Amino acid sequence: MKVLIATDKPFAKIAVDGIRQEIEAAGFELALLEKYTVKQQLLDAVVDADAIIIRSDIIDAEVIAAAKQLKIVVRAGAGYDNVDLAAATKAGICVMNTPGQNANAVAELVFGLLVFAVRNFYNGTSGTELKGKKLGIHAYGNVGRNVARIAKGFGMELFAFDAFCPAEVIEKDGVKALSSAEELYSVSDIVSLHIPATAETKQSINAALLGRMPKGGILVNTARKEVVHETEILEFMESHTDFKYVTDILPANDAVMKEKVGSRYFSTPKKMGAQTSEANINAGIAAAKQIVGFIKDGIEKYKVNK
Length: 306
Ligand code: 3PG
Prior knowledge:
This protein is α/β, with parallel strands linked by helices.
């Protein structure tokens, strides 16, 4: 039984060692493909893999067709928009994620980006504090909950909108549950995005929503670039010269953003939210355990292509 780790953005070595231990203890073999530069390397590596552990790596119909032995793909992380679920289901392949395992890491980065933003990107000018500001958490899943926990330490006032999470669940954390995105943006000095990339959310964060925010608003994106309308954000920032955008997902229009609104915009060059040893260990080992449980005992917990 061959398990392949295919990660363009590698896990910390300590996480790979932990995954290896789990896989070898089960009597399986581990193969590693890291930092691949062309798709062909992935296509070659999956040929004899029974199971694959990935991160944001693209598993499309072509990869699935090349992986003749494949039984399971585990996305070590939360979002699985990088996997062609229909193609996997058609080929009888189980797809899982590892929900919650990297949530704290992503939530901590939200505040790394926010402190940077409110202090004017450390340019020496006088900034503001997070204390007392209204934070809108857009979607209250594992990351959103961790954001709320940390925000309380900063003394922020908390609001959330989640189309699927019941208001009682949100409010028991001391967060005010609102009933629409429009309401959330209308009250929030800062909005933190935690919505998945789906057909419904694609480009949904647009100028109309941002226009509802109070003066001096900040949008922080540690979710997906697909959920924001990049062109409208640029136009909005050009006409609202007090608005800031900080993101952990490099926009397609990064160069023009830097040129036109560069003093109020920052993007990490490569998605860093889940890039901690702890998150790599948590998500990587969870993925390895889920593969062993699936192959040995048919356990399908966390299957996402039902
Ligand atoms: C996730 O969906 O789990 C996060 O976006 C992290 O993605 P990454 O594993 O590619 O860093």
